[in-house]
Amino acid sequence: MDTTVGDLSEREVLRRIAARTGRASAALVGPGDDAAVVAAPAGSVVATTDTLVHGPDFRLAWSRGYDLGWKAAAVNLADVAAMGARPTALLVALAMPADTRIAFVEALADGLREACEALAPGCAVVGGDLTVSDTLTVAVTALGDLEGRAPVLRSGAEPGDVVAIAGELGLAGRGLAILFGRFRDAAGDPVPVDAAALRAGEAALLEAQLRPAPPIGLGAMAAVAGAKAMMDVSDGLALDASRMAEASGVAIDLDPSGLGPDVAAALEGGEDHALLATFAAEPLPPGFRAIGRVREGSGVLVDGAPYDRRGGWDPYADWDARTG
Amino acid sequence: MDTTVGDLSEREVLRRIAARTGRASAALVGPGDDAAVVAAPAGSVVATTDTLVHGPDFRLAWSRGYDLGWKAAAVNLADVAAMGARPTALLVALAMPADTRIAFVEALADGLREACEALAPGCAVVGGDLTVSDTLTVAVTALGDLEGRAPVLRSGAEPGDVVAIAGELGLAGRGLAILFGRFRDAAGDPVPVDAAALRAGEAALLEAQLRPAPPIGLGAMAAVAGAKAMMDVSDGLALDASRMAEASGVAIDLDPSGLGPDVAAALEGGEDHALLATFAAEPLPPGFRAIGRVREGSGVLVDGAPYDRRGGWDPYADWDARTG
């Protein structure tokens, strides 16, 4: 039960992972050879990579193996969706200490599979890599299919467009604040969440942080509906909208009445991986709600006034190993 | 000059990397959006991922940033080539301590670019991810194009086939032995290589270990020439040939006269990333040389006798952080 990966051969660890990660419907060659081969019937492939590192990106006291696998899949699927594509396959590079329990790794594989099943049916792990490291690290690459459509870039927004969002804003950030505020010991180290200590609604905030469920399928739907610009909101709406504004050479004017009860959390909380898009006009496609307008100018406005709070997350500026 | 990544914003570090990584000819959308888009004109994409972790996979006392970037590219390009494909694009997930010097990162980007230019022209970095970690980690994903051919798998070898190799055998392993044997201090920690202490020919062995140059272009040529099975030799010929034998349900009988002057190094040294292939008959395509025959049976034979020395490298079984 407490068998570690160091007790097993690389081959046996890989076998146990592969037994759990399912099969991608687009896989022409799956795990086990030098490389996978994935169908790309539209003649192009969308590709993105995102890494979760123990310390800055997750803490084992808070995240189970399942959560880690789920989140590593979800954040990458969101980047594929944000191009207007359908995710087809994941590659997973896992670097972990030799004393990592194999049960943890199996749960991680379950989380990868179930995130794909729930968020992007047909997508699954097609390959990966296993190595030893002092720092538990999960680097995922996601591939996707544009199905003949042009990719939806950050740079396509034009004055007059409706700014719209699909998915949650601010919940994951509020969940992180609960973890940092209430589930650390006197030295500042994370301690497991005591479910009995949670108030009404807080379990959902932790869920949003630990197992985000961005609306992956809506990315392709938005593209079909004519989305002009799109990106996933990983670093907070204010910061990510400013990136879209800059790429498009426009201003994005957000209406706080569309941002829910906690406007500051919606603007500055990261990691929800909602889809931010602009459309020429309403009606919006299902799942999207209007949160503002594209204007001439630059930067992010809230109710017409420049919004200068940076929000978001910079791994080098914001992470301090001593304070978490 | 000693500016670290922690002194700069994520955006500035990414800008400096992107300025050096070149442009992939297959890139329809390059770095800077949520994901890249890479042409896949044959309707499928080859995809593989491989990670280099500080400690088990490289030591900063021995590897410069340039070497690390070069090797991270080369080992992944070899996996694409081993499928009979042409590499088209790399994604690079870089996790590094905040005190990593930006000059090191820029050199790493140069190594990535120049390995692609030298080994797989047209291929370049199309995307990536940057995060902070206590352990310097470079996770690369390589994509490739089969150009309409079927992938060449490990499982296609049949009795009577000629076993052939393209590239070096044993040099990288001999280079590693020099580093471990002669360039460590009394405590066992790596110390920089003193070029004046190298004997004739040893510089080439270190080069093979630190900046391997596998024959990437020969992978697609082998496929065109009808290679029936192929894989890259990353863990030593004996171990990798046993994997091909098992996948194909055959025995692989190696002729030691084809393995160069140091047969043990050729059989057991890893990390050369030569291409091991089988062909129905000679003549072999340019760059390949015969090293044996496929037989009925199982396992690896040398001169007709079973070869049971395992060789190769298992990250969990073989790495000990204390002894290196």
TrEMBL record, chains A, B:
The keyword Lyase does not apply. GO terms for molecular function: ATP binding; magnesium ion binding; thiamine-phosphate kinase activity. Residues 32-144 form the PurM-like N-terminal domain. One of its GO terms (biological process) is thiamine diphosphate biosynthetic process. Gene3D superfamilies: PurM-like C-terminal domain, PurM-like, N-terminal domain. Pathway: Cofactor biosynthesis; thiamine diphosphate biosynthesis; thiamine diphosphate from thiamine phosphate: step 1/1. ATP binds at G128, D129, R154, S234. Keywords: ATP-binding, Kinase, Magnesium, Metal-binding, Nucleotide-binding, Thiamine biosynthesis, Transferase. Mg(2+) 2 binds at D50, D79. Substrate binds at D57, E271, W313. Mg(2+) 3 binds at D34, D79, D232. It is an enzyme of class 2 (transferase). It catalyses: thiamine phosphate + ATP = thiamine diphosphate + ADP. Catalyzes the ATP-dependent phosphorylation of thiamine-monophosphate (TMP) to form thiamine-pyrophosphate (TPP), the active form of vitamin B1. This is Thiamine-monophosphate kinase.
